[in-house]
Design a protein that fits this description.
It contains 17 helices and 25 strands. The chain is an alpha/beta fold. It has an eight-stranded antiparallel sheet. A seven-stranded antiparallel sheet has the order 5-6-7-8-12-13-14. Strands 17-16-18-19-20 form a five-stranded parallel sheet, with helices on both faces. The radius of gyration is 25 Å and the shape is globular. The protein starts with a strand and ends in an 18-residue tail after the last helix. It binds 5-amino-5-deoxy-1-O-phosphono-D-mannitol. The site of 5-amino-5-deoxy-1-O-phosphono-D-mannitol has 17 residues, from helix 7 and helix 15.
């Protein structure tokens, strides 16, 4: 969601900025732009749509030598995704890019308009540049004008601003939206995530909320409040190889296939012969904890629900689930002896981050299960368990989900060991099952071929119901989310036993039921629910062990002796099914319409 890139140096600035934006494409966007300042003059370009439109717009622009530049991919919040609303937004002599939302923009805008400022766009961002220029007019000091601007705005932001009166400088500020500074041999870089920095910078500074300052070719000065700070640099991975498609059609497909391998990494050094190990947690971390509150959004929320069954079943600890955006505003009751667990792939999801801050403020111990080290959520939580899925580029989350589930299962066993809720034999069985996760997640080519063939029958209809029971219910939710995200077909996830309480009214041959039919949990109960739908002529695709005599289609699952292994194998099937349906419909699987990878606005 909105990507920012900045560069100060002499290395082919246009290409540097465009390459950086390309690396951020996975975050989702609907327009893009860049501004380059050279010799005290700013040139600015913007285009609606994909980056290729901006590449065309800048085809004849070829700055050489030292320059300063800012660039942006925009995911529309205030105003349509048009060229005029794309960033950078310019004033008389400065330009700004911004990720986040300026909450008091309307008041600021009204004041500026009353003083004669003309606005071109409908964005909240444009106030920043006009506010800055009006402060500069008053006190003639760019640094002071930027400081006053930052103090005047409320909301969430990562901001880069350039000004022709400070020809080698980028002003920056960060609050609630990610921003990092990288130093490379060819200059100084800014970016919203590691992706544009990997391969060009050896290390990065991850700016804390409330940071602001300026950078030029000689130095980067960072302040928090009025005080200058010297933040630590953290090393970056050295190569970009992990971020290429490697022969797959889409990042999402590559990431589905990678699940088996990354599962091995998630488990590395976390399994002893007969126990789970989580060295990230201090020895006394769980002391006094009597229940869990699991909080997340989207796919990560589905991992939360699925794991709540596992926590209660294996660790005998109460586990309640919260959608972060709901939790934030419903005055939730917090109990001091609850562990607040947030789950997030990106570690930057605004709702989850704010929920985490609320829980901390309420005095709860907090734990993040996160894929991105140094992300805002990982830094905010008392402890973090990294999922080690590697960079996930497909907007539709896949390997992040699988690795979250592994970590949550490990955590359930870890808690069970500590509390004595699990017997020795049962624990040994669970550890043995965990070791089999990489094989349960491996994709068999015949399976993928079968899914590809079957997908052609599921391109129409008036809707999909993914149904399942127990942990297969949250997996049904995830199956429906995957399908709707990339195919744009209407899909719902439902507990199989709940269909008869209303949704079954929709059943006819054009209602596609995707039934997750476990062999290990509630087999007969689920089958009865499915029979009820078959009796009403719903078209049925069963995903599970034994075939239904009357199923229209069947995708068999090999895992039959542990529910969570069945769960993982089915996970790959629902992901591939969504992928193949979306491919047949001609959709851009990696960048579905209206979606962003990292949702940094509320
Ligand atoms: O980065 P997070 O895990 O916090 O993201 C949460 C959701 O935005 C994310 O899972 C979203 O639902 C994905 N597009 C699902 O595929």
């Amino acid at each position: 969601m909105c990507g920012i890139v900045g560069y100060i140096g002499a290395n082919a600035i246009k290409k540097t900025l465009l390459d950086g934006l390309k690396e951020l494409e996975y975050r989702g966007y609907d327009s893009a732009g860049l501004a380059v300042m050279q010799g005290g003059k700013i040139d600015s370009f913007k285009a609606a749509g994909k980056l290729s439109a901006l590449v065309d717009k800048t085809a004849d622009f070829d700055p050489k030598g030292f320059a300063v530049g800012i660039a942006h991919t925009r995911w529309a919040t205030h105003g349509k995704p048009t060229e005029i609303n794309a960033h950078p937004h310019g004033g008389a002599h400065s330009a700004v890019v911004h990720n986040g939302i300026i909450e008091n923009y309307q008041t600021l805008k009204n004041d500026l308009i009353a003083n004669g400022t003309k606005f071109l766009s409908q964005t909240d961002t444009e106030v920043i540049v006009h506010l800055y220029e009006s402060f500069l007019l008053q006190n003639k000091d760019p640094f002071k004008a930027f400081e006053l601007t930052i103090k005047a705005i409320d909301g969430a932001y990562a901001i880069l601003l350039i000004d022709e009166t400070s020809p080698s400088t980028i002003f920056f500020a960060k609050k609630g939206s990610p921003l990092q500074i990288g130093e490379g041999v060819s200059g100084r870089y800014f970016a919203s995530s590691d992706a544009p920095l990997v391969g060009v910078c050896e290390n990065a500074i991850y700016l804390e909320d409330g940071s602001w300052g300026y950078a030029n070719d000689r130095e980067a000065k960072i302040f928090v409040g009025d005080a200058p700070i010297s933040p630590r640099k953290k090393p970056l991975p050295l190569t970009k190889s992990a971020a290429r498609k490697e022969g797959f059609r889409f990042f999402m497909e590559k990431e589905i296939y990678e699940q088996s391998k990354v599962a091995g990494e998630t488990l590395t050094s976390r399994l002893n012969a007969d126990s789970a190990r989580l060295d990230e947690l201090p020895e006394d971390f769980l002391t006094g904890v009597i229940s869990l509150r699991l909080c997340a959004c989207g796919t990560s929320y589905h991992a939360a629900i699925a794991s709540s069954y596992v926590f209660e079943r294996l660790a005998k600890i109460e586990a309640r689930c919260e959608i972060a955006s709901e939790f934030r505003y419903r005055d939730p009751l917090l109990r001091a002896n609850e562990l607040f667990v947030v789950i997030s792939q990106s570690g930057e999801t605004a709702d989850t981050l704010e929920a985490l801050k609320m829980a901390k403020k309420g005095g709860l111990k907090t734990l993040a299960i996160c894929n991105v080290d140094n992300s805002s959520i990982a830094r905010e939580a008392d402890a973090t368990i990294l999922t080690r899925a590697g960079i996930e580029k497909g907007v539709a989350s896949t390997k992040a989900f699988a690795t979250q589930m592994i970590v949550l299962w490990l955590l359930a066993l870890y808690i069970a060991q500590k509390s004595g809720a699990i017997g020795k034999d049962k624990l040994a069985q669970e550890i043995a099952a965990l070791r089999r996760v990489p094989s349960a997640l491996a994709i068999k080519s015949e399976r993928h071929d079968l899914i590809r063939r079957l997908s052609k029958r599921y391109l129409h209809g008036h809707g999909f119901f993914f149904i399942g029971r127990d942990i297969f219910y949250p997996l049904a939710l995830e199956g429906a989310l995957k399908l709707k995200e990339i195919s744009y077909l209407h899909a719902e996830g439902y507990p199989a036993g709940e269909m008869k309480h209303g949704p079954i009214a929709l059943a006819d041959s054009e209602l596609f039921t995707i039934a997750l039919t476990s062999e290990t949990l509630l087999k007969e109960k689920t089958r009865s629910n499915v029979e009820e739908l078959i009796a009403r002529d719903s078209t049925l695709l069963a995903i599970g062990g034994d075939r239904f005599a009357l199923a229209d289609d069947h995708l068999p699952i090999d895992e039959r002796d542990h529910p969570i292994l069945e769960f993982f194998e089915m996970t790959t099937v629902i992901q591939l099914l969504a992928l193949e349906i979306a491919v047949r419909l001609g959709n851009d699987v990696d960048m579905p319409r209206n979606l962003a990878k990292s949702v940094t606005v509320e």
